[in-house]
Amino acid sequence: QVQLQESGPGLVKPSQTLSLTCTVSGGSVSNISHYWSWIRQPAGKGLEWIGRIHPTGSTIYNPSLSSRVTMSIDTSKNQFSLKLNSVTAADTAVYYCARAPKPIHLFDPWGQGTLVTVSS
Amino acid sequence: EIVLTQSPGTLSLSPGERVTLSCKASQSVSNNFLAWYRQKPGQAPRLLMYTGSTRAAGIPDRFSGSGSGTDFTLTISRLEPEDFAVYYCQQYGSSPYTFGQGTKLEI
What is the average per-residue pLDDT within A4-17? Predict the structure, then answer.
């Protein structure tokens, strides 16, 4: 059974870069049948898809964030990562990683989520 | 971008009752690529339904989905205590993949 676990700093200063990693167990990020996505949820609000990466390195980002987002994948560590630069308080949210079966973007399973707060 | 509008925002119900949730899209969802998720407090969302009416693995048959085009519904035939949560619809027919704002079921 595939499990995902997010990790990274819980506090980031404004204008700096948010960096998170998702570690996959029970499965391989190298599996070309899957996409690996990031989704976020501000406190008390709805869900926003950030983007996805394929093991080939192919990425698609939400246009609302694309100028600030970079995703990467490390098959040797069975991890994929998110970087969001120039953060503001509006980027404070729980960040989830999730798997999707190529070619559709249906998210299952999800990691448990990690709260990132942007504050000085 | 496809905007999904869920209604109602909050519903107050009792265990054993039947409920239908609505999700309306601002434009047609291609291939009926519409999913539903349940999010319990403090947990990640869990996939319930996809392609409008197909239950995900392990989801009991008290959950059913229907709809096409721009109008979709999720019905829970008999509410169990674990069903009191927030439900989100999501379209995966076109990027960016978007979610509704959620419907909260409360006791």
Answer: 98
